[in-house]
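A quick aside before the break. I want you to see a complete sequence-to-structure record at least once, exactly as it would be stored in a machine-readable document. Don't worry about memorizing anything.
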Amino acid sequence: MNFRNLDMLRACLALMVLLGHARWLLWMPWHEWKALPHATYEWALAAGFSVFRFGSQAVTVFFSLSGFFIHFRAAAAAAASPHGQAVFSSKQFLQRRARRISPPYYAALIFGLLLDTAGRHFFPEVYTAATSDALINENFQHSGFTLESVTPAILAQPGLLGWHFGSNGPLWSIGYEVFYYAIYPLFMVVWMRSRWLAYRGGLALSASCWFWPLAGWWSAMLVLYPIWLAGALLAEWLAAHRHRPLPKAWFWGMLVISAGSLAWTELPLAKSLPFLHVPVRMLMGASTIAVFAALPSRLLDTNAGRLLEWLGIRSYSLYIFHFPVLVLLSSAVFHLLGARPAHGWFAAAAALLAALAGLAAFSLVERHFLPARQDTQPASP
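That is the input. The structure line, written in tokens, reads:
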């Protein structure tokens, strides 16, 4: 069991989101593209992008991964204690979380404001939902800098009132994370008295919001809360078994569950059974983490492993900074060409530029707020 492997998982998830967004914003729809004649190398590019098309599922795993890492500290302390107890300080926890995520987040808001201001002036099509593409327009018609978008974003709840802060729509998931951090001290109050009551209470609250929604986005956040709890529960199990080698059957079993739940989310049948949405994604999130935690440590000694670990450490900045870059480039393309391109080279180049922006933001901002124990370089082979 090697938690450094989870940095590789972070990298894979961030790349899925980034490349998926580049594919969507800067390449014509798949059903239109495949109807046209293409060279072999263009099909190879399309196949490469298709590997990273599970952006929605990647966000699901990010939620479970957050629950895993947030709760592992308490779970490990309880597992090491003769009486199964852990010491928890709500104040220290919230201070650590605020220091870790807030500076990059607010830097991303400023970055998005600057790029969107330039984009709206020179290439307004995407920003004003005035392109020739109905899907693009639908997704950007509630984006901008209004009271409904700016106020929640300043409070780290972007999208809470139904308006995205400028073009950076993917920040909605950061609002969910902040909400889960905010209620974690309440979870711990119950958990330190009865672990199963804490989990059952979270599940019951989620189920109640499914049938009787609360006001605003908080209801949607609570509906997905069990996905976060699935990661926390996995942390407890692995903390209790951290000094024992995981059997091969565990790895293969988790791999089957992860692949099976991922396949289920892609089936048309899944849309007709919405009550299975959360349970399936709970399984997908926890099992995917378990698979990566059980991978051989020698993978980190490969060039690919070291690169993924390096990117994984930078995944937060990659996630929160990439989208305004892609939107600016997409809007420029719509302004010049009138539609999404019929080839994928724009999308590939835009993905690279967006990744470079995220890496630069990490160096300028995020690296100064990493926990002292986390190095910014992978371990030497």
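Two observations worth writing down. Residues 374-381 have pLDDT under 50 and may be disordered. Residues 261 and 280 are 6 Å apart (CA to CA). We'll return to this after the break.
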